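Assess this one:

_____
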Amino acid sequence: MTAAVPARSATGTAGRRSIRVLVVVVTIVLLGELAARALGPHLPPTSLGDAAEMQLKFDRIRDLAHGPPTNMVIIGNSIADRGIDPAVMTATRPDLGTVYNAALVGAPLRGEARWARRFVLGRLRPDVVVLAVSPVDVLAIDPIATLTGHTGDADSGPAQIAAIESKFTETLDRLDPGTFRRIDDRLGDVSALVEHRSSLRHPVDLARAASDLLHGRPARTGLAQVGAVDGRLVPRDQAYWRASLTPEGYARELDLNVIPAVLDDRPRRVIASVLATTDLQTATLNELLQAVGGRGRRVVLAIIPPASKWLDDHHVDRTTLTLAEATIARQGRDAGATVVDLATLRYPAADYTDPFHLNRVGAARFSADLARALPRR
């Protein structure tokens, strides 16, 4: 007679299966963490924008929110941040009232919209919003790959632009974090998988990082966040921005930089890469126009001039910029904004630090011209 074999309990079988699943999951997570740490130096920066400038401007905006409404607020990116001095504007046109420059370095169009909507307009309560845009702002390019010299693998598609916007937003949202953001930041401090998850989800970034790692290429450092002070390059940290920012939000140069008179080969390639695309972010610009309007605010769309004379002197084709200028003006009018098109102004090369950014001499000139061109109330 054969002895009966005891049946395995369902509970015991399920428990062992759960343990195996848990071991597999933990192993996958650990392998992912190791891979993220290896790939991390070759991935794009986890955030974009100057966090120190964001924080100081947000602190100033919160202080101003306790007083009367600000009459006029300027929204834009580094081109407006460096190019528009509210003190010059109000000296030129005292009737403008109080003006604050809320532009941020590194802000993509959707980043500007989120910054304006969530952090600025509700606190400053302006009557007029000046949306300051350069023709280059609406080109569908990857500025990080372009400006760091990775022009050969720059991806101008919507996915790459969306990744840039996401990383800028992550930096922005740390200004006023909720519980989830605080937890996420803590996890990102200890886990490369969490820190780099947005890039790891992007196939192009992941493929580039893997290729760089396998071929022993140097790490991608992104845009160096440095500024010139007394002829030296220093980190753009809180000390730098405290010295640079005026109470009205203008990011004045601490050293006067002038665009080179002779165009070397690398800058020529960078400019050619920037102006090679004919894809424009028209839908995103429209989102930005909608974000800054409403609640009785008047929107002025001001087009900032590039260094057209310098570009012409160096035989750079400006067809794309001309197309962008016309598109910006048309979209502004269609959205009900007052368009102040100053793109045709031909300032001397000595007024620029590069083909698109004014230096402090050019900023003073442009700020006065902008003030004179703004419509009367």
